[in-house]
Fold:
Amino acid sequence: MGKNIPVPAIERLTKLYTVITGLKKSNKKRISSTELESLTGIQAHSIRKDLSLLASVKSSKDGYSTESLEELLSMTFGFERKRKICIAGLDMHGMAILNNPDSALSGFEIAAGFDSSINRLEMITTKVPLYLFYEIEEKVRQLEIEFAILAVDSESAQKTADRLAAGGIKGILNFSPVILEPKQGLLIRNIYLLEELRLLSALLAQGFATGNSEQYK
Amino acid sequence: MGKNIPVPAIERLTKLYTVITGLKKSNKKRISSTELESLTGIQAHSIRKDLSLLASVKSSKDGYSTESLEELLSMTFGFERKRKICIAGLDMHGMAILNNPDSALSGFEIAAGFDSSINRLEMITTKVPLYLFYEIEEKVRQLEIEFAILAVDSESAQKTADRLAAGGIKGILNFSPVILEPKQGLLIRNIYLLEELRLLSALLAQGFATGNSEQYK
DNA sequence: TTCTATCTGTGAATATTTTCACAGATAGAA
DNA sequence: TTCTATCTGTGAAAATATTCACAGATAGAA
Structure:
């Protein structure tokens, strides 16, 4: 309890949080590490070990309380605080994200959308305030936006990321078909469709055919 | 050389492959491990170590030949063989992927699209053959589709994944807002927007603010 | 040809992560 | 209250992965 948590454990615990919020909605009150294993593919003893890194987990003969687990994870990782995000690039992909119901992004608030084309911005109907790319730095700073979802073409990806960074953004989820250059003080996750497909190919070629997503992720 | 390659190394090498194909297009002939580090965030000695796991890397005083690296990785991971994929769920997100130019998915061929609504299918103009969900199992088997991109709502995600699996699919990239249950013999990557955002939050809360994407990915 | 500067390639050392296995805790039954 | 069955919690052991550090290889200069 209270130790510092290794990154792989953070990833697993975040996944657990997601699964547990789902369970809570379907009114499941308690759950054991074994049940969680079958839902997530994370092995039961890993789950117990990971949870032991957190402060004061409560459990009993029939496992953990979904409610208190959710709360504990939420506290540990700051999920209870709503964070502002923005979407940079409003083509089909960006729009699909912008059009998500609020509930799909619970815990986050889309505080701005950006695109390079004023024509496109004028065509969009949304409650989210929209701006042009050149305003990124100013607006990110002004609105205190913490994370960005980047969904632009390969040509503008790095430049747009630089603008976001200049505005003081803390993290970028990059869906553009480019691997962004790393930058000190900026969390980057490249989610690159073609590369994800290649990774599947590579794993297959190397003989990983398990169903356990944690064994290769 | 010839050893078996650990999963984290496969991930890094796949990323390298992506970066190197980009370099080759911009006509860069040779590249050093240090340059690759600054492009990918993967440390130079890790790159060298990873490459040493592959058969016969050729290098010299000015680094590696982009061409031969690309070829080597391509051979090792089977990127030279074109694989068939399908898209299940053709709402905005699925359509954004369907509308990608072929070049954006080089090495893969979209061999089918699926949706639950016949009306929606009739509205779509594309060269890709489209079918209803109930045909998934049959078509996946018949067309020998290897991977699926799943982009449906949370209600149908698990059921649709089961259909894909029944057809003998080998891997699923799941963009639906649900964590799919693991299954023996099936590679699953859950790419869940909300969870990716949460992971950024969690990493931030735990004090990871490096720019090096590999240090937390 | 020899010297030099600059890379790579890789065993060995370290560090990290996962797995194990069992003591301890809990709740229900008798 | 005591017994029992069933979980969790966690040090210690084992397995993996990363980092280091330097020998070896290469190519250009003199």
Notes: Chain A touches chain B through 82 residues (CB under 8 Å). Chain A has a mean pLDDT of 92.
